[in-house]
Design a protein that fits this description.
The complex is a heterodimer of chains A (about 270) and B (about 375). Chain A has about 270 residues and is mainly alpha-helical. Chain A is built from 12 helices and no strands. Chain B has about 375 residues and is an alpha+beta fold. Chain B has 2 domains: about 220 residues, Rossmann fold (3-Layer(aba) Sandwich), CATH 3.40.50.300; about 120 residues, no CATH class. Classes of the chains: A mainly alpha (about 270), B alpha+beta (about 375). At the A-B interface, α7, α8 and α12 of A face β6 and α2 of B. Chain B: InterPro entries: AAA+_ATPase (IPR003593), ABC_SmlMolc_Importer (IPR050093), ABC_transporter-like_ATP-bd (IPR003439), ABC_transporter-like_CS (IPR017871), Mo/tungstate-bd_C_term_dom (IPR008995), P-loop_NTPase (IPR027417), PotA-like (IPR005893), PotA_ATP-bd (IPR017879). Chain B: It catalyses: ATP + H2O + polyamine-[polyamine-binding protein]Side 1 = ADP + phosphate + polyamineSide 2 + [polyamine-binding protein]Side 1. Chain B: Belongs to the ABC transporter superfamily. Spermidine/putrescine importer (TC 3.A.1.11.1) family.
């Protein structure tokens, strides 16, 4: 008899536990009933309802817009932030800045959300698109910094010396050596910020105002009125969307590697 | 005299109150191969970084072709560096690495192409243009680093222990190639190393450094044959260093005996140190030797035997001999007066040179 590998059983068990709720949700998105107590019959009706739900589509677009804009801004600010921390020669100051950055990472969303709310009201800023965007940028920056700093620390300082030695100005050192070197960290930071923004609920819930909602807030408010299967359909679509994203990222990576290998073969010939 | 390419005038460098360089005066002439030699932490790399412009001198003047360049940024200096760990750009391939400096200066594409090919040919890497850096061996990366620095056509090339990461055989090959390259291009090389063999093999002139000072400068032969003090004698090659006393000019007393030597110009009965290089000691029959020693151990080093022996007063003698002897055997040691080199305590380089000149003229 083949020996059972317990670590594999464990792994499969974990994955079932993680994915079962999602598939449960998706399964019922094809049910014709109006709740999840028993599957009635197969239907696309929930999806059709979703696509004519103008409000829902608008919210999806708004959420994506916030995610893209906030992660772009956070990536730019975070990149320069990471560079700033890296360039800080004074150990004490650098560790302090880094600690301040990390505290933002670990502090509860509720606290961050509440403080933003107080801050924006204090400034007299209207709550809505602007306040949500600003707060998303703010909580994404530490993530970006944390993704980029290891790449910077991994870079040998001699590379910067070498670039300057060969005649590069400060700007050229940055654009031709440092940024290309840390580009993978920048991309990782961008995607992390993107996903954080997409699924943020707590902070958004605090700082959003009338007439502006993101997906998570909308789903929450609908779920309170008893979840409709339209939500299931939406979840299914988002799941497929993220699958496509992951697959796309994977394929892109593979193609890059294949290209590199081809260049290698060509050079070797 | 020709104007030096690079000149240091009493250059001092301090980090947090610690003096790394304690008043360096050196001059590098055009087209020569110079070596800064010293143990790690002696400040030799700091000198290189000051010339390259990565760090500033705390005091003193740094001149380049007669112009003060203390505050000139690194990217405006006609100096290029080959780094210890090569510092090649991992996101660029070989061609792009070598072309980096030329691209920055907006040189025409066709010119860049020609210059990169030429630089790679100089370091014998023609045909490697499209390789990634990660695909190259350590020796090849080393050559790319040299090509990248040379493609910029610097007036002075700085090399920061560039051979230390290579294995023995490759290092020897690269020594020949570097020397050859320097002579063909006719530009000034400043090479930093802690390896005395490397320094002796390649240089026109060596600066021996310790603790932030240049102790002695001169041709490899001068420094090897006439070390100025204990440190230099010990650092450059192996040697027997014994306490002695100058009885008179050309007459020294050590291990209780008097010997003829080739040095003069010291006070009578001045305490000195005597250097005898192990390869200058010949093993002869006991009755023909100026000294009698007992062989303790001998190691076969390939091209010679390294023999340790002790004399009657238990002084240790190191002898290099092409022929083996027997452990425990009594042998005689013979050496010529020219093989006996005398070092005074605390003599400065100027005094040392002046003294040597004074009696060498007499001869």
């Amino acid at each position: 008899m083949k020996k059972v590998k317990w670590q594999n059983v464990w792994l499969v068990g974990i994955f079932i536990l993680l994915y079962a709720p999602i598939f449960y949700l998706i399964f019922y998105s094809f049910s014709s009933g109006d709740n999840m107590n028993g599957f009635r019959s197969f239907t696309w009706a929930n999806y059709q309802a979703l696509f004519v739900d103008k409000r829902m589509i608008e919210i999806v677009l708004q959420t994506l817009l916030i995610a893209i804009l906030s992660s772009l801004c956070a990536t730019i600010v975070g990149t320069f932030g990471a560079l700033g921390i890296y360039e800080t020669k004074h150990r004490r100051v650098r560790n302090m800045v880094l600690a301040l950055n990390n505290i933002l990472m670990v502090s509860p969303d509720v606290i961050i959300g509440a403080s933003f709310l107080i801050f924006f009201t204090f400034l007299g800023l209207g709550l809505g698109f602007g306040s949500v965007l600003l707060s998303h940028i703010a909580f994404s920056i530490p993530i970006v910094v944390l993704m980029i700093l290891p790449k910077l620390n991994e870079m040998r300082p001699a590379l910067v010396d070498a670039a300057r030695d060969l005649g590069a100005t400060d700007w050229q050192v940055l654009s031709k050596v440092i940024l290309p070197y840390i580009s993978s960290g920048i991309f990782a930071g961008f995607f992390m910020a993107f996903t954080y923004s997409l699924d943020d609920f707590a902070v958004t819930f605090f700082v959003t105002g009338n007439g502006f909602e993101t997906l998570s807030v909308e789903i929450y408010s609908r779920a309170r009125q008893g979840i409709s299967l339209e939500i299931n359909a939406l979840s299914a679509l988002m799941f497929v969307f993220s699958l496509i994203l992951v697959a796309g990222y994977y394929l892109l990576n593979q193609r890059n590697q294949a290209q590199k290998a081809r260049r290698k073969r060509k050079a070797g010939a | 005299m020709q104007q030096p390419m690079v000149e240091f005038k009493n250059v001092i460098k301090e980090y947090d109150d610690v003096q790394i360089l304690k008043g360096i005066d050196i001059a590098l002439e055009k087209g020569k191969f110079y070596t800064l030699l010293g143990p790690s932490g002696c400040g030799k790399t700091t000198i290189l970084r000051i010339i390259a412009g990565f760090t500033n001198a705390s005091a003193g003047n740094v001149l380049f072709e007669g112009q003060k360049i203390n505050d000139l940024p690194a990217n405006k200096r006609q100096v290029n560096t080959v780094f210890q760990d090569y510092a090649l750009f991992p996101h660029l391939n070989v061609f792009e690495n070598v072309a980096f400096g030329l691209n920055l200066r907006k040189v025409k594409k066709a010119v860049i192409q020609a210059k990169v090919i030429e630089a790679l040919k100089l370091v014998r890497l023609a045909g490697y243009e499209n390789r990634e850096i990660s695909e190259l061996s350590g020796g090849q990366q080393q050559r790319v680093a040299i090509a990248r620095a040379l493609a910029n056509e610097p007036k002075v090339l700085l090399l920061d222990e560039p051979l230390s990461a290579l294995d023995m055989k490759l290092r020897k090959d690269m020594q020949y190639e570097l020397r050859d390259l320097q002579q063909r291009l006719g530009i000034t090389f400043l090479f930093v190393t802690h390896d005395q063999e490397e320094a002796l093999a390649m240089s026109d002139e060596i600066f021996v450094m310790n603790e932030g000072r240049v102790l002695q400068s001169g041709s490899p032969v001068d420094i090897y044959d006439e070390p100025i003090n204990h440190f230099v004698a010990d650092f450059i090659g192996e040697s027997n260093i014994l306490p002695g006393k100058m009885v008179a000019d050309y007459q020294v007393e050590m291990v209780g005996k008097q010997f003829e030597c080739a040095d003069a110009g010291m006070k009578p009965n001045e305490a000195v140190e005597v250097v005898l290089r192990p390869e200058d000691l010949d093993i002869v029959a006991v009755d023909q030797g100026q000294l009698v020693v007992t062989v303790d151990t001998q190691l076969f080093r390939g091209d010679y035997y390294e023999i340790t022996a002790y004399d009657a007063d238990q002084n240790r003698w190191l002898i290099h001999s092409t022929n083996p002897t027997q452990d425990g055997q009594q042998v005689g040691l013979f050496f010529e007066p020219e093989d006996v080199h005398i070092m005074r305590f605390g003599e400065s380089e100027e005094d040392f040179d002046a003294r040597l000149e004074s009696y060498e003229e007499e001869d």
